[in-house]
Amino acid sequence: MSLDPVQVMSGHAKELKVVPSSNGDSKGSWEEKEEFDQDNLGLTTKPIPPKPENAVTIAVSTRVLFRTDREQKVFEQKGVEEYLRYQIEHENEPFAPGPAFPLVKALEAVNARLRELYPQSEELFDIVLVTYNHAHVGIRLINTINHHNLFIERFCMTGGSSPIGYLKAWHTNLYLSADSEKVREALAEGIAAATMFLPEKQSEVSQSQLRVAFDGDAVLFSDESERIFKAHGLDKFFEHERDNEDTLLDHGPLKGFLEALGKLQKKFYAKGQRLDCPIRTYLVTARSAASSGIRALKTLRAWGLEIDEALFLAGAPKGPMLEKIRPHIYFDDQMFHVEGAAEMGTIAAHVPYGIAQKHNAKQNTSAGK
After folding, report:
1. Are 99 and 60 a contacting pair, CB within 8 Å?
2. In 87-208, which ranges are E strands?
3. Is 246 a catalytic residue?
4. What count of Cα atoms within 13 Å lies in the side-chain half-sphere of residue 147?
5. What does the alpha-carbon distance between residue 105 and residue 145 come to, in Å, rounded to a whole number?
6. Backbone angles phi and psi of 198, in degrees to 5
7. Can you point out the beta strands (E) in the chain?
8. Nearest Cα residue to 63 out of 99, 92, 93, 91
């Protein structure tokens, strides 16, 4: 199966029925009075979004949050002027949900729970919509966000320029895009990022619990061990892992995002809600438990990070396990696993990092000869 970031799903993403949410106040102290916007009648409305440095910021592109395949074809076939004209003519027609839509709804559900426990806290998920679009398209995007009852107040419309500098200014913890080149650019700048795809089918996901699944090597960890495997084979990989069992793996590109999730999880644990936490994390790795899994677990423990569930598959396909987990997003560095997960209905995101990218490039070159 071949995945294209802008290919069309056979069905729309299912909208999650969760409590509409908004973010916390702009004050740093929990003792300070919460500030709200007020309408002209003096009634309270939405809370003010948190300061970026206090929030867990998730930046999503228009093409992964919404279905924009029709508009993309207009741009590719007729050019930018016709594209802008089309968007303005259809600005009262909301976009349909895209692959990141269930994730965003789940983030808002977690925010609702956090505000119940910590009304004044700014430690929340903050969602930034990042688009290369011209500002003229902003009206349709705002209409769409209001139509779907999303709380997204921060926009970044770059008019074709790279968004990377803005991502840094937002203190972005994760960037999700359909543009693999921009994802690589973000990773090169130290920003956790992944390319999202539109699968042919999409599994229903939890409405009350955010579930995030990670591959290990070249995602949470460095690609050190994967380089051994690629260069010398499986036996040398197992030997290397046994010899280095007590040597910590270096960090991978998404370690910081797992840390951010863990920080919010601990806020629920502090209120006695470990068993009812609305965030759950998974390690889904091709490593074998006895021969190479212990090093991964020791590394996570030394980092002070908790994974709720760890699945060591010893090379077995990941798709069936992910179908049981039903995560809102699964991160992997190898397209083989991304495609396998997507075939089972999982929203999988590619992290183009590490030695596997060179290996895949060689395969693609050979296939083209």
Report:
1. no
2. 96-97, 125-131, 154-157, 172-177, 193-196
3. no
4. 15
5. 11
6. -100, 100
7. 36-38, 44-47, 56-61, 66-67, 96-97, 125-131, 154-157, 172-177, 193-196, 210-214, 279-285, 309-312, 329-332, 348-350
8. 99
Catalytic residue of the set 25, 126, 215, 217: 215
Q: Give, as one character, the DSSP assignment of residue 54.
A: G
For residue range 35-56, list pLDDT tens digits in order: 444 444 444 456 678 888 899 9
Q: How far apart are CA 216 and CA 297, in angstroms?
A: 10
Looking at the DSSP bridge assignments, the partners of residue 176 are 60, 194
In DSSP terms, 172 is beta-bridged to 57
pLDDT digits (tens, 9 = 90+) for 149-183: 999 999 888 877 888 889 999 999 999 999 999 99
Residue in 178, 185, 250, 189 with CA at minimum distance from that of residue 219: 250
Please answer whether residues 347 and 3 qualify as being in contact, where contact means their C-beta atoms are separated by less than 8 angstroms: no
Asked whether the whole model's pTM tops 0.85, one would answer no
- Position 57: which residue type? T
How far apart (Å, rounded) are the C-alpha atoms in residues 334 and 352? 8
Q: Are strands 309-312 and 44-47 parallel, antiparallel or unpaired?
A: unpaired
